Amino acid sequence: MRLEINRVEMPLRNVFRISRGEISVQETVIVQLYDNGESGLGEATQSSYYTHSADSIIDSLKQLEQELREWEFTTPEALWEVAEERLANDYFALSALDQAAHDLYGKRHRTSVFERKGMNWHNVPQSSITVSIASIPQMIEELQGFAGWPIIKVKLGTSDDLAIIQALRDSSDAVIRVDANCAWTVEETIRNSIEFASLGVEFIEQPLPADAPVASKRVVFEESALPIIADESCQREDDVRECDGLFHGINIKLCKCGGLTPAFRMLDEANSRGLKTMVGCMIESEVAISAAAQLAPRLDYVDLDGAALLARQPAQGVKVQHGKISRPSGFGCGVTLNTTLV
């Protein structure tokens, strides 16, 4: 096997703000895994919260390049087990490699990832699109630009959170979900949940910090008027078990858990515990979105708007338009690279 690594800068359509910062350009790492004349694509974007930069992801992958040349490719799962031992400190890099391995395997065996897993593309949930933090008039303007999207996810974590949701509800009849990105206290969460429930909000994502005491998470779980979905609190496979009894559902992101291989196992574990399941994303190109979309037929909720927030694409794959997720075309993850942009 041979690995090709590309760093790509992706400008956003608009500045994207959450409770802990903002960006206007997203740096990402796109990899191509080659074997016997075939190739697969994978991606990992940098994230300051998870302390992964484009440089650190590239450095991790480069440490594996020589070993990859000596390994025989059989299945993505077999490659993941070996690579995880070398990349245990960089699950973003592991995710990019695992996505590429699934894409390569599917192309070799002329099947999509979701079909290989025994799924069909029926009754796939629609995706939300994100309104990021700004002034209320700016957020209303952004919301109006998303006309036709049936589900809106609103980033919160300000002193005006209730006023924001009231204003957005007055401006739209779309389903509203909120994401506090760890910004609230227990008291704020319970108070906001009651107010938001009266405004038709569907659920709250990650209100408390990931390292909040278990007792605090349990109080929120038991007293919230709305379901609570874990994001930052559910990163790896073992976290699913820890979320049981503290959250009503989990948000799986490939970069957090290390790719599709563990993501499918997390779905199995969550289903066995009666937890709702969701797939989320960073601001990513259609490489990573196409990989994450392979989970969609098994999910309760989908948040795969990352590529829709970009000004231009380095790849072509699964499209998310007005909430509808296009069926992956071709084999593997159904994505191809725009070489002129890399």
TrEMBL record:
Protein name: Dipeptide epimerase
Cofactor binding: number and manner: Binds 1 Mg(2+) ion per subunit.
EC number, as in UniProt: 5.1.1.-
Enzyme class: isomerase
Upper taxonomic lineage: Bacteria, Pseudomonadati, Planctomycetota, Planctomycetia, Pirellulales
InterPro entries in alphabetical order: DgoD-like, Dipeptide_epimerase, Enolase-like_C_sf, Enolase-like_N, Enolase_C-like, Mandelate_racemase_C, Mandelate_racemase_N_dom
UniProt KW keywords: Isomerase, Magnesium, Metal-binding
Source organism of this protein record: Bremerella alba
Positions with a binding annotation for Mg(2+): D179, E205, D231
